[in-house]
Amino acid sequence: MNSYKDKTALVTGASSGIGLAIANSLARRGAHLILTARSTNKLNEVAKGIRDGGNRAHIFSGDLSQAGAAEQLYKEVLAANLKVDLLVNNAGYGRWGDFTEFGRDDYAQMIQLNITSLTELCHLFIPAMVSRSGGGVINIGSTASFIPVPFASVYSASKAYVLLFSDALRYEYADHDVRIMTICPGATDSNFRAVAAMNSNALQTLIAKMEELGDVGASCEEVAEQGLDAFLQNKVYVVTGKGNKKFTLLPRMLSRARVLNMVGDTFRKRLGK
Question: What's the pTM value of the predicted model, to 2 decimals?
Answer without folding.
Answer: 0.89
